[in-house]
């Protein structure tokens, strides 16, 4: 007798305002998966920072510690909104987290800066353009270095 096939989870994609509502109403935490310099330049207020990739002189380099840091910082059933700049990195981060056993993921599809169409035009305003609460600078408790130390 064969075992059951693993359930395929579909990560829900939400707008920035829907993400904010989930945070306020349902206790979701926002995880910004952009690089540390991007996060420190501006991020959703209260966001945690765990980069899926690091900025380097040669371009973006994958963060090999991404899943380990996330697993140390959050339980597998934590309610998480995952966001980036335009939606690409957050989709990759959600796929990696889902594969690692996280079960309550939501992808904030327009990111901090807004989703763009094939011509580079903003097709959906991001968190900052929608006037949602923002913060800037390092965060001693929610920044990447603080979360990395938890592991």
Structure in words:
It is a single chain. The chain is an alpha/beta fold and 151 residues long. It has one domain (12-150): Rhodanese-like domain (Oxidized Rhodanese, domain 1), CATH 3.40.250. Helices cover 29% and strands 24% of the residues. The chain is built from five helices and eleven strands. The chain has helices at residues 16-26, 36-41, 66-73, 88-99, 144-150, and strands at residues 12-14, 29-32, 43-44, 48-49, 53-56, 59-62, 79-83, 104-108, 115-116, 122-124, 134-135. Strands 1-8-7-2-4 form a five-stranded parallel β-sheet. Strands 3-11 form a two-stranded antiparallel sheet. A two-stranded antiparallel sheet has the order 5-6. Helix 3 (66-73) packs across helix 5.
Produce the secondary structure layout.
Blueprint: E1 12-14, H1 16-26, E2 29-32, H2 36-41, E3 43-44, E4 48-49, E5 53-56, E6 59-62, H3 66-73, E7 79-83, H4 88-99, E8 104-108, E9 115-116, E10 122-124, E11 134-135, H5 144-150
Parallel strand pairs: 1-8, 2-4, 2-7, 7-8
Antiparallel strand pairs: 3-11, 5-6, 9-10
Helix pairs in contact: 3-5
């Amino acid at each position: 007798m064969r075992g059951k096939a693993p359930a395929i989870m579909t990560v829900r994609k939400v707008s920035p305002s829907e993400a904010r509502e989930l945070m306020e109403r349902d206790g979701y935490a926002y995880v910004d998966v952009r690089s540390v310099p991007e996060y420190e330049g501006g991020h959703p207020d209260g966001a945690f920072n765990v980069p899926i990739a690091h900025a380097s002189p040669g371009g973006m380099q994958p963060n090999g510690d991404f899943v380990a840091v996330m697993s140390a910082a959050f339980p597998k059933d934590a309610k998480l909104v995952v966001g980036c700049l335009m939606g690409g990195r957050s989709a990759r981060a959600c796929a990696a987290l889902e594969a690692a056993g996280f079960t309550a993921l939501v992808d904030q599809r327009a990111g901090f800066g807004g989703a763009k169409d094939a011509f580079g035009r903003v097709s959906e305003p991001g968190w900052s353009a929608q006037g949602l609460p923002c913060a800037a600078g390092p965060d001693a408790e929610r920044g990447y270095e603080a979360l990395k130390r938890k592991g």
